[in-house]
């Protein structure tokens, strides 16, 4: 006689309320990564900023996230998860208000840096709190709900941003998260119980400070290099020297310290080290396209902001679909094949985008964005699984932190390099096109252009200059898409360096 199966315990109402509160904060934070993309041209106009200056509104958020994410585990252990979560949520909410009230690009960058920094612990802590709110038998379901909810954020960000900018103004993209942040903070304060924490947990401040300095200086060099003509500027030379010195101190100190910030032993794992290199490339190609496409479609194609939000949103839906497919395929085929396909889909979609012109239609943006998002989702699961399949369990928590640090550093650097390539390419192409503008050029005498493109009048010269700038900028965008396609394709052969795994590694909620 068989024994009846014991049903899994049901989730309590308190557990559900805790899950809603912490997921709400995490989702609003995730939305802020993409919601601002459709507002960038409007912010650029308000602040009279250049392309490279306005890109800091995106990269400063990721930079703040990266710096604080590096020590979020220590903060949670040292001060308690509930306390860190409340400070992060309240700080993020107040920083959102400050972002909305910014009157200069410098203010917007500073408040976005604080917004990203305060909110950095929300994602890992929200996942831990969600699991703690349910019995172990329900952890699979709770983790699935958490993952889907946090993926909705980036998917809906452009659409929400488009609606807010269309019917209000760009500051409302920041006001949007304020009531949800306040509600999440109140729910956590009321419902979550504080757990014992390690008040005396040691912290390697030298290792942490030098690592953060390397990441910050690298971002500064990439963002300012083009404007300052790279190593012709003493500012860039000094920043590069500081970066090299801090990197040297970090490596030497980590090798000699008793309790280093990052344990050197984990980098001896082949899969983990290869995975970190590919993770940086993965982050590098992840968000550059969506930022560039947003600027291009509004600046050159004239898409209304609400239309832009709608045509960009399928990228996030593709990520969701890709993660489901990637999770299904993980145990069924060699994960190296799946990861290679993910890079391939990103490369293919970017290559198609490199063939766009000033008449690109919304459907082209829809399907290439969905393909790129699907590739991102499909590749993420096997990348994470292969990285941690052979890593010693005692390094897993620290390894996840390093993984996310490299991922978001790659995202930040990718956006900075994309804007730098756009600026330089536009300048070079403008100079090249101007060389062909002459009264002796037969094309300027064609009936279709002869009226408005008269090189002998100021009006004609102004028209020619505007069109040359437009075409040079378009070529700059296309060169960027080509570069991203090439980089993603180049990464595919290196996937074969992974050792093949048989067992599936524990999944992570980060994405």
Mind explaining what this structure looks like?
The chain has 511 residues and is mainly α. It has three domains: 13-194, Growth Hormone, Chain: A, CATH 1.20.1250; 204-260; 265-511, Up-down Bundle (Growth Hormone, Chain: A). The chain is 71% helix and 0% strand. The longest helix is centred in the C-terminal third of the chain and has 39 residues, at 396-434. The relative contact order is 0.12. Mean pLDDT is 81; it is low at 1-8 and 503-511.
What is the CA–CA distance across the termini?
46 Å
CATH H-level homologous superfamily name of the largest domain: MFS general substrate transporter like domains
Percentage of residues in strands: under 5%
Q: Helical element count?
A: 21
Number of domains: 3
| Low-pLDDT regions | 1-8, 503-511
CATH-assigned fold name of the largest domain: Growth Hormone, Chain: A
Question: What oligomerization state is this entry in?
Answer: single chain
Tally the beta strands. Answer: 0
Shape: globular
Q: How would you characterize the largest beta sheet?
A: none
Please state the CA-atom Rg, rounded to the nearest Å.
Answer: 24 Å
Helix content: over 70%
List its traits.
single chain; 511 residues; mainly alpha; Growth Hormone, Chain: A; 3 domains; 21 helices; globular; disordered C terminus
């Amino acid at each position: 006689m068989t024994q009846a199966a014991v049903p899994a315990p049901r989730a309590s109402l308190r557990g559900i309320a805790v899950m809603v509160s912490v997921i709400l904060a995490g989702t609003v934070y995730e939305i802020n990564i993409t919601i601002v993309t459709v507002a960038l041209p409007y912010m650029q106009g308000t602040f009279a900023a250049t392309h490279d200056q306005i890109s800091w509104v995106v990269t400063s958020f990721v930079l703040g996230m990266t710096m604080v994410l590096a020590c979020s585990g220590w903060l949670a252990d040292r001060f308690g998860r509930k306390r860190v979560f409340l400070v992060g949520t309240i700080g993020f909410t107040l920083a959102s208000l400050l972002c909305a009230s910014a009157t200069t690009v410098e203010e917007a960058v500073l408040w976005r840096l604080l917004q990203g920094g305060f909110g950095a612990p929300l994602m890992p802590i929200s996942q831990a709190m969600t699991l703690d709110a349910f019995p172990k038998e329900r952890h699979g379901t709770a983790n699935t709900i958490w993952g889907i909810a946090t993926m909705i954020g980036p998917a809906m960000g452009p659409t929400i941003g488009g609606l807010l900018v269309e019917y209000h103004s760009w500051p409302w993209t920041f006001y949007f998260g304020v009531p949800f942040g306040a509600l999440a903070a109140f729910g956590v304060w009321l419902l979550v119980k504080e757990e014992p924490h390690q008040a005396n947990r040691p912290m390697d401040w030298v290792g942490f400070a030098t690592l953060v300095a390397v990441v910050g200086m690298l971002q500064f060099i990439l963002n300012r290099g083009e404007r300052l003509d790279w190593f012709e500027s003493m500012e860039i030379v000094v920043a590069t020297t500081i970066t090299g010195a801090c990197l040297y101190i970090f490596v030497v100190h980590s090798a000699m310290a008793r309790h280093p910030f990052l344990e050197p032993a984990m980098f001896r794992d082949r899969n983990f080290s290869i995975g970190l290199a590919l993770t940086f490339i993965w982050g590098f190609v992840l968000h550059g396209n969506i930022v560039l496409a947003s600027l291009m479609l509004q600046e050159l194609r004239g898409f209304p902001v609400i239309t832009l939000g709608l045509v960009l949103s399928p990228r996030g839906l593709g990520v969701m679909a890709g993660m489901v497919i990637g999770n299904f395929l993980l145990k069924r085929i060699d994960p190296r094949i799946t990861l290679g396909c993910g890079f391939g889909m990103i490369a293919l979609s970017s290559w198609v985008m490199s063939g766009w012109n000033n008449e690109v239609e919304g459907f082209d943006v829809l399907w290439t964005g969905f393909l790129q998002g699907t590739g991102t989702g499909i590749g993420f699961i096997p990348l994470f699984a292969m990285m941690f399949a052979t890593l010693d369990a005692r390094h897993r928590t620290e390894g996840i932190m390093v993984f996310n640090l490299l991922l978001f550093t790659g995202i930040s650097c990718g956006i900075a390099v994309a804007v730098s390539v756009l600026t330089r390419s536009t300048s070079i192409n403008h100079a090249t096109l101007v060389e062909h503008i002459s009264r002796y050029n037969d094309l300027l005498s064609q009936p279709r252009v002869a009226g408005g493109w008269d090189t002998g009048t100021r009006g004609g010269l102004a028209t020619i200059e505007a069109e040359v700038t437009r075409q040079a900028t378009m070529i700059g965008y296309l060169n960027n898409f080509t570069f991203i396609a090439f980089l993603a394709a180049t990464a595919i052969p290196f996937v074969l360096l992974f050792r093949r795994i048989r067992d599936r590694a524990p999944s992570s909620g980060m994405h």
